[in-house]
Structure formats: structure tokens, C-alpha cells
Known about the structure:
A: six-stranded mixed sheet, four-stranded antiparallel sheet, 12 strands, 51% strand, globular, B: 115 residues, mainly beta
Amino acid sequence: AQSVTQLGSHVSVSEGALVLLRCNYSSSVPPYLFWYVQYPNQGLQLLLKYTSAATLVKGINGFEAEFKKSETSFHLTKPSAHMSDAAEYFCAVSGKNTGFQKLVFGTGTRLLVSP
Amino acid sequence: DTEVTQTPKHLVMGMTNKKSLKCEQHMGHRAMYWYKQKAKKPPELMFVYSYEKLSINESVPSRFSPECPNSSLLNLHLHALQPEDSALYLCASSQEAYEHTDTQYFGPGTRLTVL
């Protein structure tokens, strides 16, 4: 079964600092990977996704992620954190070996941004 | 318009009540999903509808009964729930349920409390 592991339930950064949120996947076949953000009391919003077209994926709000097969990773980065980036971030995998799209989410990482 | 709407926003019900959650999208998507999200946990898939037919039921108890009256509308009927069913219920939609690279668009959720 495919799964993702997010290291660090909480990450704290200062405003303007680099944001790095980690995601490692486990899959017997190359997976499709997603990063979603959830603001308090809201639904999830897609930041970016890897669909095997390009290993470096750029998303909304200045976020990007790089798919590294050798490290089975898909870490999310942003060069300079903003206060508005404080939220819960979920990495998710969608398997190719199931008939229908089933997103399996990691446990989430809460990003805290201090002034 | 990439909006998925959900009503009600909040719902409090007793264990003997019958209530329904409603989800609507007007993006022409043919796949719709129900997820359950407990506090500080990732969303967990409950049901997948493809072309108005139930395609995946993730072994959800029968006290949860989904319904897809048309391609834009998805309901979740609730009956005889338990306090442990209290959670945020998220609806999502995507272009096609069998396309693993599709983006799922999430609604804001219904926060359900079972007394």
C-alpha cells in the first residue's frame, strides 16, 4: 500500500526565513504526490502536485517541491515565510494501482511563523 | 468557479437524530468524495462517487448513508450516530474519479458534534 510520512508535526520559522516541510513516500511504483494546505476552520487547498511531468514543481503562494526518486522524497519549500503561511500542511499520495483516485494523506505538519 | 459548498457549517445532533449534510459543486466534475477529519488528524476517505454511482465505500458504518441525486449534488445522511463520530466532514470533487493526477477541490466542511 502506498503511504507518505511527514517528519515533524510542528515546524517553527521566523518571518522571512526558509520554509522546509518534509514528506517521504512509500510506493512500489512511481506515485503521484500532492501538497495541500488547510487554514483554521477551512477545507483543503491544493498547493502543488507531482504528476511525473517535471521533478521540480512550482505551486501557488511561492511554494515549490522537488521529487527525488533516490531519496523517495517530495519536500515542500518556500524561500521566505510570510505570516499568512501559518497553517496545517498535508502531503498526500494517489496510487496508480487502484481503479479510482484515493488520496492517502500524511499526518500533517503545522507551520508556525513568528514575527 | 472552483468552489465546493457545504451546508450546514456546524451541526449538533443527538444520538437518536436523523440529519443530512449537503455538498454542491458547479464545475462539471464527475467525481465527488466524502472525507472525515478528526481533530489534529488528516482527512480519511469515506466514499467516492463516479458519475453519480457509488464507487468506493471505505468500510464505513451503515449509520452513514451517502446519496448522489445528480452530478452537482452529494448528500450524507446521518442516523443513530455515536459521539466518536464527531468530526469535520469534508466534501471534495474532481474532474474524473479514475484520473489519478486530478486535483480534488475541497469544501470548507461541516463540523459535526454528536451529543
